[in-house]
Design a protein that fits this description.
six-stranded parallel beta sheet, six-stranded mixed beta sheet, Aspartate-semialdehyde dehydrogenase (chains A, B, C, D), homotetramer, Rossmann fold, 11 helices, Dihydrodipicolinate Reductase, domain 2, 22% strand, alpha/beta, Semialdhyde_DH_dimer_dom (chains A, B, C, D)
């Protein structure tokens, strides 16, 4: 069974990761790549300034780029769209595809907190996908829109989900984020060499709200935000890929570090083509300096979460977690939601 | 009035900063530089692999290095010693100097939490210096030993001291520390290029305990640790100098961000030669991406603290702070304690 | 004697360096700062995203930015203009100022090789300034236009000038250039972290031609290019400031490394306010790993040249040289030409 | 057909690459790992601080490390040894293995220029292997010692070999070398962040002599060094892996850039398991900014050479070349020589 898919905004940094990840995908077949009007008509090779460290797949290199509109992809006969458009563009363009009946798995940040849009990590809250029924009722769409969270949120939430059994009450998290999270030209070299920047616009609010939606309960009609207090502080540092996060957690219970490690290690993954066998790899006491971005970001092909440094504190516990921000945190997240949409019969 | 001073361990990274800071000092005159036995007898230029970005002062370059022992400096007629010895060496060697009657201002980490050793930042807790009387009673020393805290602790504690009026109860702090904090060879390039390391041995415990001693109350006989809970998480990142810290604070009161900023800005500095006019520089809402290590580490010649990013959170407030780790956080901290010792009549 | 000066393109990276260098200048008084139309009317503080590591001088911060046109600066009563406009803009705008009678010392790359435009480094070829007479004859300008060379050319040419006494015949040079040479946003962090880029558009041709003009003989009517063959290869590397260059030289004579070092060390500087006492600092055999960008770029306040690693080769000799690319290589170069213009009576 | 192999010095940086490359090798089976006496008896996992970005192969992790001596490996029944010992150790230890009859493919720098030791790159000068006969005659060894060149030499020599048909006369080469070339702790972070170091001890002489031996003619009794003049200048820059080199070449003929590109592209590879299908990948005029270390170092699994930037100069031509310094430039080079030794019947 093959599913024909398209990528909206295929030439950018996340778009290139989609193409890399779709190469040799067991069920998805890339049938359309879109970009802005001035790239339409070019081959993908001409339109994209390819930056990924594997070559452009030959067949994609020669594909014709079409404009990002339902008309543009009308001939491609696709069943599922992945969107990595800038959020400003996405908020204008995505509705047109939904009205035209397309199923869209989107990495763009618009509408993530809308009450009728599922914000989903397949291993964490697949049941939220049922919000699509609410969405269709309210908006009258034939299509369906599902979002994945922000890259910094995705890195942390699987660990919080694994630990929620201990009665998660408060979270203080600090991020050390890679430059690729800002896109190819987002951080200049003069800003970041021998430096760190303790501010990423809007990022802290995303972590604080998206995490509570992801961990929230689906009632059948809506998602009730998780009750934990979450406070985030976000930094950009001179790493290329891989967001590292330091998390302080407080629980109703008093779990030991060993119990926390075990809960993360044994947290169940999903049965989807791109899900890792073990979702969260956990380093023990004997390797306190892990995870590290350069050494651990490719765990499970960049689709896994790596944790470590679990210790008690005066207020509860702390640990570190890490994920590849443009794979698990962006293109891979949308891809996985696409696989879930197929699995659940929405495609 | 001139005070003759010596540097114990003068050839290392912190020793070199001492020499840079003592050049043109208004009252201190460098009269002795010590190192291990195999450097004794060489000129300073020969013995030190000079790495500071200003040239070796000419007179220091030609000074003879002597062995780190009371005999070694016997002819130098010094009144005050600065110590930047590795803590393992310092714990062996410092007592000999104290027994010989020297006043020692030490950056080494040994004995910082000893109940009869003052751990002092002159602008924060100068009254703790009176522990010297207890120390002399207990140890029978003619000399006096004062310590400054760890570089990561120094960066944060002035801001906490400024905010303590609001009833400081809990602190969660994450550090982004520069490689120079580990000494010249402490972090290899292969470890840190395109990477971050979420572990610095012993650093978190230092921040958690030293901060409570610095903020503690001196009763006349001892220092009562401050009652706040402090939890720290420490990271090494690819910056050369300047420790950046993200701090989450919770108070008995509910101060506004504006009140927090004002409390930091108006916190009084000390009237010592190396103290900044304004101890804590605070960036406002209009510059949320400051402080940054490369842009702000030289504030007040590297002796100031720079803060910013003050905001409310779901649990209290958060802000960022920064200091130059080898100036304010090491050599400059000991130097300032030396100035306080002179001011208070211990030298 | 005070000279009122203006900066064309004052808000960019080189413009900011001009402002830093003009602060406390003994004879120049900053009287006008220009930028594009959308910045006109703002204060300098509002218009510039200040990135230099010293604060904006207070008086400059509150200056009103005017449009880059003769009308814009008409009220400022300036005697000398420094230009750091992008070359595309400069080639359009500079002629208007020259027709209006202004003397312009320009860092922009347009017209550097024009036969009636002096390309000058004051310590190397001050006599080329007399081309201004040719320029005035040919163009009918009351003003005068002088250019300084490209940053990578400036780094090398003083050393070649010092060695030309040995009969310079061939030069092969490779550069390791800092990111600041491309302007604040010229090199993205994703391009350069853990990377090097062996191409800088147009840079190699600039080095090959400008160097021969600078070393050429002024006949009274024109500059005859120096006869040496010059081949350059240019690279961008992850350094912030300071261009390092590896130079292979071949001579008619067979000078020893000692003779080469001595010729560079004893090369005469100029008697201008911003010229270093010793133009070229030379490291000897005992420090073969110098010059290095981070350790040596601030020699003589960034206005000096630093050389080292002089050795014989199978084909002649080789050495390394280094200069601060945005000080000696850009703003400082124009400033120095301005000082020469004053000295020679053109202002 | 399986060949049992051992690694001398298996725990270091190059040793780890050997292990990575031998995992899944079609014919070599790892049977012994040696290290210094204090590691002997430990498992490989315990003895090695594993730094490669793929996990330790499970079977290797549990192998017992033995001492680096013929006695140490006596029970392992190996047919071929790879050596990545420090050259000081290798010059003491390698002869013992040769006297004991082992065939050793060594990456260590000792003896590379010895007249009876083949210095070999299988695609370039496989016929030099016949020096083994001379070696056996002179030294009375049953075993055989073959060396591969230095990492910076290997990067350049395949391109020179491809271009030698045009009458190679002179070479000026500048290197931009990655920190991994100095071993795990060879370059500290404080030395190299925001910096470059224009000196690597002994490296320039290695490039100048080894390249002429590799390109030299084997007469049946000796290798006559190639007659070209070679001058090298070597730099360390802040890259992790991948040596980039800028090469200026002069020929008896006057080949066009197109002819140079074609000669490199069509240069024949070897028919060995680890040789790339196309030895030299060449970028054309349309991608003048390639090769780049981060983007191109993994070409052909790190075993290929990548060239680009071919242009005419005033003196001949120039181009850039790049190879992965710890794969093609070290462990992979020895491995390939091992494959050649098997192919040629020495094992």
């Amino acid at each position: 069974m093959s599913v024909r898919v398209g990528i909206l905004g295929a030439t950018g940094a996340v778009g290139q990761r989609f193409i890399q990840l779709l190469d040799d995908h067991p069920t998805f077949e890339l049938a359309a790549v879109t970009a802005s009007a001035d790239s339409a008509g070019k081959t993908y090779r001409e339109a994209a300034k390819w930056r990924v460290d594997t070559p452009i797949p030959d067949d994609v290199a020669e594909m014709e780029v079409v404009e990002t509109s339902p008309a543009g992809i009308a001939d491609a006969d696709v069943d599922l769209l992945f969107s990595s458009l800038p959020s400003g563009v996405a908020s204008e363009v995505e509705p047109a595809f939904l009205e035209a009946g397309y199923v869209v798995s989107s990495n763009s940040s618009n509408d993530r907190m809308a009450t009728d849009v599922p914000l989903t990590i397949p291993e964490i809250n697949p049941e939220h996908l049922q919000l699509i029924e609410v969405q269709r009722d309210e908006r009258g769409w034939d299509g369906a829109l599902v979002k994945n969270p922000n890259c910094s949120t995705i890195t942390m939430v699987p660990t919080l989900a694994a630990l929620d059994e201990f009665g998660l009450e408060r979270v203080h998290v600090t991020t050390l984020q890679a430059v690729s999270g800002a896109g190819y030209s987002g951080v200049t070299s003069m800003e970041i060499i021998d430096n760190a920047i303790p501010h990423i616009g809007g990022e802290e609010a995303k972590m604080e709200t998206e995490s509570r939606k992801l961990l929230g309960e689906f009632t059948g009609a809506e998602v009730r935000l998780h009750g934990a207090d979450v406070a985030a502080s976000c930094n950009r540092i001179p790493t290329l890929d891989g967001h590292l996060e330091n998390v302080f957690v407080e629980f109703a219970d008093e779990p030991s570090p060993a119990a926390l490690r075990e809960a993360m290690r044994s947290f169940e993954s999903a049965d989807l083509p791109s899900s890792p066998d073990q979702l969260i790899k956990v380093f023990g006491d004997d390797e306190p300096d892990r995870p590290q971005p350069r050494l651990d970001r490719t765990y499970a092909g960049g689709m896994g979460i790596v944790a470590g440094g679990v210790q008690e504190t005066a207020t509860g516990a702390k640990y570190n977690c890490l994920a590849h921000n443009t794979i698990r945190g962006a293109a891979g997240a949308s891809l996985l939601n696409g696989e879930l949409l197929v699995e659940e019969g929405y495609v």
